[in-house]
Amino acid sequence: MDVVLRLRVIAVLVLALTSCGGGGDTIRDDKPSASPGARTDDVLASWNDGEARRDIVEFVERVTEEGSPDYVAPEARIAVFDNDGTLWAEQPMPFELAFAIDRVRELAPSHPEWRTQQPFAAILRADVAGALQRGGRRGIAEIIAATHGEMTPDEFERVVRAWMSSARHPRFERRYSELVYQPMLELLDYLRENEFRLYIVSGGDTDFMRAWAEAVYGIPPSQVIGSQAQLRLERRGGVPTLVRGGEIEFIDDGPGKPIAIERTIGARPIAAFGNSDGDHEMLSWVAAGPGPRLAALVHHTDAEREFAYDREARSGRLDAALDDAQRSGWTVIDVRDDWRVVFPFERGE
What we know:
Elements: H1 3-17, H2 51-64, E1 78-81, H3 95-107, H4 120-124, H5 128-148, H6 153-166, H7 182-193, E2 197-205, H8 206-210, H9 213-217, E3 224-236, E4 239-250, H10 256-264, E5 271-274, H11 280-287, E6 294-299, H12 320-328, E7 331-334, H13 335-338
Parallel strand pairs: 1-2, 1-5, 2-3, 5-6, 6-7
Antiparallel strand pairs: 3-4
Helix pairs in contact: 1-5, 3-5
C-alpha cells in the first residue's frame, strides 16, 4: 500500500469511526412525534402514509408492471443499501468500532504491553473518547489492525458472531442485531417480493458484515460489498489458508461505492438507499442512470426514539447529500415523520 493510499485509508477510518457522541443537531425537538397513521394494507406496515412511502410504492409498481414504459426486467431490478445508519443504527459510534473496542479488552491479557501503549491504555482505562481523540488517525489504524487482522476469514467470522450474540448497545441495552430498522426490514421484504436483487454496499469490513447479514437481513454473503481487508495466502500445516492482514486494501465509501458496485455486480442499480455524505456518490451515480430511478436518504430526526443528527455530526454526517437530495428531488425518509416504529422491539414482540 503506497503512502497516499495509506493516508486515505486512515482518514476514512477516522471519519467513519471516531464519533463517541450522538453528534449533530437535534432536529425539530419542538415537533411532536408522528402518530401511527391509518393503513389499509400490509405493504410497509411500519411506515406512515407519507410522501416517502408513496415514492417507494409508486416506483416499485412502475418498474414491475408489464407493458408499462417504465417496466424493468427482474434481472435488472437491483437495489443497493448502505448499512450503518440506513439498515441499522450507527450511534453513539458505528457498531464495528464498538466491536473493535470490546475486542481490545478481550485480547488485553495476551498483550500486557497495552497497559502503557496508546491508544490501548486509554481504552483499558475506560477512556474510549480519549483514546480516539488523542490517538487520532494512527490510533484508529492500530485498533483496527490489532482487532481485525491475523486471523482466517472463518476465525474472524466466529469472533464477530460471538460478539453479536453477547454485546449490548449502551443506550438501548439490547443486542446490536436488535437495532435494525423495522421499516427497512419491511422494505427489503417488499423489494424481494417484487423480484429485486438486494445488495449491502457499506464502508464497513466485508467479513464483519458477512458474519451476520444473512441472519439479520436475509442478504447472503455474496451480496455484501464492503471495505476489503488485506488477504494473503499461506500454508498452515501444509494446507493453503487465507489470512486477513491488519491493513485495508480498499475503502468502500464515497467514490469507492460506485466502483465497488461496478466491479462486483457489473450493472448499475435502479434503486439506492443511504443516510450520509459517504453515500452521496453512490446515490448520484444510481440516479444518473437511464430509465426509472429511486435514490433515497434516511434522515435521522428522532432523538426520542433513536438519534437526531445530520449536518454537524462527527459520524454519519449528512450535509452535501441532503442538499443534493433537495435539489434533485430524491426521496428523503424522515425518521420522525415516516416511521411508525423504528426498531422491531417497539412492536412489543
